[in-house]
Amino acid sequence: MPHKFPNDFLWGASISAHQTEGAYKSDGKGLTVQDTRVRDNHEIADFTIASDHYHHYKEDIQLLAELGVQIFRFSISWARIFPNGRGEVNQAGLDHYQDVINECLQHNIQPIITLNHFDLPQTLEDIGGWSNRETVDAFKDYAITVFKAYGQQVKYWLTINEPNVMLLVDQKILGKQIPIDEKYQQFHHLMIAEKYAFKLCHELVENGQIGPVPNISLVYPATSKPLDNQASLYFNSVRNWAYLDFSCFGRYNAVFSDYLKQKGVTITFAPDDEALMKENFPDFIAMNFYTTVTVEKPTDKNNMTEGISDQQSEDIMDWGFYKGVTNPYLKKNQFNWTIDPDGFKTTLQTLYDRYHLPIIITENGLGAKDDLTEDGKVHDPYRIDYLKQHIEQCLEAIEAGVDLFGYSPWSAIDLISVHEGISKRYGFIYVDRTEKELKQLARYKKDSFYWYQKLIQTNEIPPERR
Ligand code: BG6
Question: What is the pTM for the complete model shown?
Answer without folding.
Answer: 0.97
